[in-house]
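Lecture 7, part B: from sequences to assemblies.

Below are the input chains for today's worked example.
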Amino acid sequence: MNIVLFDSNELDAGGIVSVRGRRAAYLSEVQGAEPGGILRVGEIGSKMGQAELLEVSSEEAVLKVLSLDEHSPETHTNLIIALPRPQMLKRILQNAATMGVNRIMFIRSARVIKSYFATPVLAEESIREHLLLGLEQGVSTKLPVVSVHDRFRPFVEDELPALSADSTVSLLAHTNASSDISELGLVEGLDSDSQITLGIGPEGGWQAHEVEAFENAGFLCCGLGARVLRVETAVVSLLGQIELLRKLQ
Amino acid sequence: MNIVLFDSNELDAGGIVSVRGRRAAYLSEVQGAEPGGILRVGEIGSKMGQAELLEVSSEEAVLKVLSLDEHSPETHTNLIIALPRPQMLKRILQNAATMGVNRIMFIRSARVIKSYFATPVLAEESIREHLLLGLEQGVSTKLPVVSVHDRFRPFVEDELPALSADSTVSLLAHTNASSDISELGLVEGLDSDSQITLGIGPEGGWQAHEVEAFENAGFLCCGLGARVLRVETAVVSLLGQIELLRKLQ
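Predicted structure of the full complex, as structure tokens:
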């Protein structure tokens, strides 16, 4: 936990924050934080700063906010991911929040197992908890917006065109793509503010008609090299590559 | 499991391979493979090809090798990683094998918890099993060479100079580095055959004297951007970025 995140309703008018549960237990038991210590804090959806720890136990930590004036790093990457199995879903939510994404859309595709949509990991509170774990690691206050789309066709027809139109580049990771991500001429066109949308398929890959639907919406297919990555590994590797492409001139 | 890997001693003179245990159970129970099916196979440390499944049960699968003439993708990246906690270690072994690395050196550093060196995950058979899981995912036969170094100074003095001398570039991932990996001018100098050595620190980072020891051996420090990544996330992100840098011209 590299930042203590709190909700606006946990902050009182005198600048005192009281956090309970997991965050207090972590500060007290894992980090061994003690009263008087200065910690990095952030208001979820707003700014970051510093606070002094006034009291701490495994049930509750009370902090006095000293400053709250740093902007959270901006996010300009959207992820579209064929819904993976629940254990992998948890790690994807955390890693995506840590690495910084704007939106995550979990979608149905032919090779997605339908029962995955019934997992409790997709409950609103659960999604939020995994995203917060990721933000606490990555040091950010900006919760990605997560949506779940259990039908492929309506998603493609209703959401993809606007997403693609709003993006500088839209990429579809696809095992059989003829071009690698290094071959799409992306170095010149991208910078840190470019909106990028990235689609990542299920284990076993996208089906041909699904690839066609993305291509029709303006997505470029990109391969992932000779090796077959698990979905969660592909997410992290591609987010790392996109970050590098944004920075290279 | 995208390839069935076998040891040379599991292959008889008639080209018949018999695999037992986890691999047989996976083919039978998860993939529902049936006699007559054609599977991708590979001899560990040697070539890959195809085989016909002759018999399969959850205890044993018998395959007839049809071809064994494809080279495994080459690996030219070495990893030096401050030994992480055991659960993370497992995932790092798997992901590194999937993404393709040549050597992995787990080392002691000031912020590594000493008891981690006693974990059963570091037993030879355990390391091999996790690497094989990674190779089965990534489709390769080339086991990374793993070594464990429980003292920092002897590692730095005895191993680092030769590693650095054999590498086109040696990088040390470091939170406080003044340059990002995008700012080191690496696009021109690297291609798919370049030997690259990458050092990744513990949670909490390298100490100043450790950074100095790497720099004295010729390592360049590179930052990881505004966000703080977990070690296992940093490994995957950086391996993805290095693969991209090798391919960009």
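Note for the exam: The interface with chain A takes residues 2, 73, 95, 98-100, 137-140, 180-183, 187, 225-230, 233, 236-241, 243-245, 247-248 of chain B (CB under 8 Å). Keep this in mind when comparing with the next example.
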